[in-house]
Write a structure and sequence with these properties.
Blueprint: H1 4-17, H2 31-41, E1 46-47, E2 60-66, H3 71-80, E3 88-92, E4 98-102, H4 110-126, E5 135-140, H5 148-168, H6 180-183, H7 188-200, H8 206-213, E6 221-222, E7 237-240, H9 249-266, H10 294-304, H11 308-318, E8 335-336
Parallel strand pairs: 1-8
Antiparallel strand pairs: 2-4, 2-5, 3-4, 5-7, 6-7
Helix pairs in contact: 3-4, 5-7, 5-9, 7-8, 10-11
Length: 338
């Protein structure tokens, strides 16, 4: 088992190879450099960041699902937990002795991440993450704004990278959960159809966007809660449903940050020139969502992140298991739980 000093020494070696504060184009590395990077990443442990330095207007929330739970114990202790705002427990009949804890509306503060850690540690004592548990991320819709181009860019970027997104949000598991097509169905094919419809309109409006993307709730993204495009309103969220269940605050934080950066990237103009439209039929087969595509992942990381450290956090979670198996299972730990 690696000691704290081993981890420090290894990180220093990794950061000598790639400066964490620079912004290198990783997708332009040659094969030897990529092999060295992926080798060094195998012993890189992700830590909870005190804050993500994101805009204070951005709000988010979590639904932490679990099963085989001592529900009443979690309920009682959750009420006593010294958090900034109350976290609420609910039963979940889709799971075996299941439940979920819903966060209050959160912002990127040190207190938020400390509270998340407390809640995760509490649930861990009295419940398990089962093969059908998930962790939904809600982002306040105001992060998108009412510029139709942002929505069109986001639809496009998600659609052509959904295979990467699913594998990344598998978290500490090596593949998508067994019931994902029932509760978080892949949207790539339908979103590409929406994209083509919207691109044909001369001046698409926010309502045009909403009419296109208002798909069934149980998809990878639920757009059904949208009330306003450009300002905060309680429960006015876009819900990301692909992430597997986790009680690791580091992975929760990493997922939230990824979705935020994906949307911030969509606010740029002409992003369709950055990432060419992929015409892979296999993109729509779920089994291919359980395979690593490193070249595509590097392109996405270069597009949405501004520092190498951000890219390393993304890639470490994405490359969690170099040899995926057909069975749903945990991979070797790659985080340092706070």
């Amino acid at each position: 088992m690696s000691t704290k000093q081993d981890i420090i020494n290894h990180n220093q070696k990794l950061f000598r190879f790639i400066s964490p504060n620079s912004n290198d184009t990783l997708s332009k590395m040659d094969e030897k450099e990529i092999n060295e990077l992926t080798s060094l990443l195998e012993d890189f442990y992700l830590e909870l960041r005190e804050d993500l330095k994101i805009d204070a207007t951005i709000t988010f929330g979590l639904e932490l699902e679990f099963e085989k739970a001592k529900y009443k114990k979690i309920e009682r202790r959750l009420k006593l937990l010294p958090t900034n705002k109350p976290w609420i427990i609910k039963e979940d009949n889709s799971l075996i002795e299941g439940g979920e804890v819903n966060s209050p509306i959160l912002k990127d503060t040190k207190k938020t991440w400390k509270d998340l850690t407390k809640v995760c540690h509490l649930i861990e004592k009295y419940a398990l993450i089962g093969p059908n548990s998930s962790t939904h991320v809600h982002l306040g819709t105001q992060i998108f704004g009412n510029n139709p181009n942002t929505w069109i860019n986001f639809i496009y970027t998600w659609a052509i990278n959904e295979n990467i997104i699913f594998y990344f949000t598998n978290g500490e598991y090596n593949r998508t959960r067994p019931n994902i097509t029932k509760y978080a169905y892949p949207l790539a094919k339908r979103l590409l159809e929406d994209y083509k419809i919207l691109k044909e309109k001369t001046s698409p409006t926010p309502n045009d966007i909403l009419k296109c993307i208002h798909h069934y709730k149980y998809n990878a993204i639920n757009f059904g809660n949208i009330k306003y495009f450009d300002h905060y309103q309680q429960k006015n969220t876009v819900e990301f449903r692909s992430p597997n269940g986790t009680l690791d605050p580091v992975i929760c934080q990493n997922n939230i940050y990824f979705f935020i950066k994906l949307i911030e990237y969509a606010k740029q103009n002409n992003i369709t020139k950055d990432i060419p439209l992929m015409k892979q039929v296999s993109l729509y087969h779920l089994e291919d969502y359980n395979k690593i595509n490193l070249k595509q992942a590097l392109n996405l990381a270069d597009a949405i992140y501004q520092t190498n450290l951000e890219k390393l956090y993304f890639l470490r979670q994405y490359l969690k298991s170099p040899t995926p198996t057909s069975n749903f299972q945990l991979v070797k730990t790659f985080t340092k739980k706070p």
